[in-house]
Amino acid sequence: MIKKSDILARKLGLTFSQPQLFKMALTHRSAGAHNNERLEYLGDSILGFVVAEKLYTLFPEAGEGILSRLRASLVNQTSLAELARRHNLGDYLILGSGELKSGGYRRDSILSDALEAIMGALLLDQGVEVCRHWILGLFADKFAEIRLDSWNKDPKTRLQELMQSRKKELPIYELVGMSGVDHAQTFEVKCSVVITPQATRGVGVSRKRAEQAAAESMLILLEDQD
To answer: From first to last of its 226 residues, what are the pLDDT tens digits of the chain?
Structure first.
């Protein structure tokens, strides 16, 4: 049985002057035309801004590349679904019969979209500052866990650690091409991981550099997919 939305609002420390917005935030498109897709669009935007601003303040010495990767690690689908599960968000989702039967309330994509939709609903109901304050509280533990030194690691190390954190097989690097004379060769390497059918390629003046380039491209691909 779907639990009442006002119970969840209290658990999240929220009070809506327009409670219909909160109910809509919990309504998946499979349940009808009045769903959370537009609210999710708003929530995604305010979430990205708030997290980016916080990281900019927390790490004044970090460059744009590291800040972008940090933000992606916090606002990706897996991270948001984890936060949603902490609050048992799936128990309150309004789903169509097909999604209910297939266990949609457990799916990362549906959970993460609903959490962003709540942010969008809060933005409309109470404005930017209230929404910003709530998001910062929601992510407080995740901000506290960030250690900048781990983000200064090379791409191959970061990709390996990402696979280990997801309990997946390690990346596979395959030399697919070499060109040039002996003292000025160029190497091309393909990188594959089990969590996506797409492979990435990297080119470098040594096999090691080509592998690093392929790993960096894979990290970017996975961030975009999340």
So the answer is: 457 888 999 999 999 999 999 999 999 999 989 999 999 999 999 999 999 999 999 999 888 878 888 898 899 888 999 999 999 999 999 999 888 888 888 899 999 999 999 999 999 999 999 999 999 999 999 999 888 876 767 889 989 988 998 899 999 999 999 998 877 889 999 999 999 999 999 999 999 999 999 998 999 888 777 6
Q: Which residues of 57-77 are buried (b: 16+ CB within 10 A; e: fewer)?
A: eeeeebeeeebebbbbbbbbb
Which one from 40, 44, 99, 113 is the annotated catalytic residue? 44
- Catalytic one of 40, 99, 116, 211: 116
174 flagged as catalytic? no
Asked about 116 being catalytic, the answer comes back as yes
204 by Cβ neighbours in 10 Å (0-12 / 13-18 / 19+) ranks as middle
CATH H-level superfamily of 5-151: Ribonuclease III domain (1.10.1520.10)
User: What's the whole-model pTM score?
Assistant: 0.72
Dihedral angle, C-alpha 17, 18, 19, 20, nearest 10 °? 180
Task: Tell the residue number behind the tokens 């983000």, with chain if given.
Answer: 151
Span 153-225 CATH architecture: 2-Layer Sandwich (3.30)
